[in-house]
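We modelled the chain as a single entity of 99 amino acids. Its sequence is:
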Amino acid sequence: MLRYTLMRLGIFVGCLVVVWGLVYSGLAPRGLGASNGMWVVLLALVISAPISFVVLRKERDRASEQIVQRVDRVKANLDANRSQEDGADETSRAQRPAS
């Protein structure tokens, strides 16, 4: 997951540099007044999102498989703990004298 996040951040930074260069060279429109920095960041986000979606598809699938494996492992551990607790509860009830 860290690898995917770093790759996505890299694509965003690359788009940010390209958009910044285009805006300051005059090929892309500038923001109004003091909003130019926000304009550059938002434009870079809009451009980097579809690029990340297409380019990082395999990495995203790998990351989701890892997450599914972790969730399954946690579920198995919880089920094992529940069965141990049930067994201990049944044992303690069986050892208790009947009233």
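As a brief sanity check on the tokenised model: The CA atoms of residues 32 and 39 lie 9 Å apart. Helices lie at 2-25, 36-55, 57-95.
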